[in-house]
Design brief:
The chain is an all-alpha fold. It is built from 4 helices and no strands.
Length: 87
């Protein structure tokens, strides 16, 4: 089951993206529909809200712990771009 839309999130995210700042009737109707949707879903609407990420940084791909050989090769390459790697 999907979560009901959060009225504050709709106002903060969708209104600017849809360029509705000057369309107060549309904004009011959009927020009204979101509120009705939450009411129809009942208490379940509050518990099913997924965790949202508040930043847009990419996930860390690798750790450098235990990769001393690779780090040494990177350092050699950075100091001398023409140097050959051991691989």
């Amino acid at each position: 089951m999907s979560a009901a839309p959060d009225v504050a999130a709709i106002a903060a995210r969708f209104v600017p993206v849809l360029d509705l700042e000057r369309e107060q009737q549309w904004v009011a109707r959009l927020l009204e529909l979101a509120a009705e949707s939450r009411e129809e879903m009942g208490p379940q609407a509050q518990t099913d809200v997924p965790h949202t990420v508040l930043y847009n940084l990419p996930p860390r791909l690798t750790l450098f712990v235990g990769r001393e050989t690779e780090l040494a090769e990177i350092a050699v390459r950075l100091n001398n771009p023409n140097a050959a790697c051991s691989r």
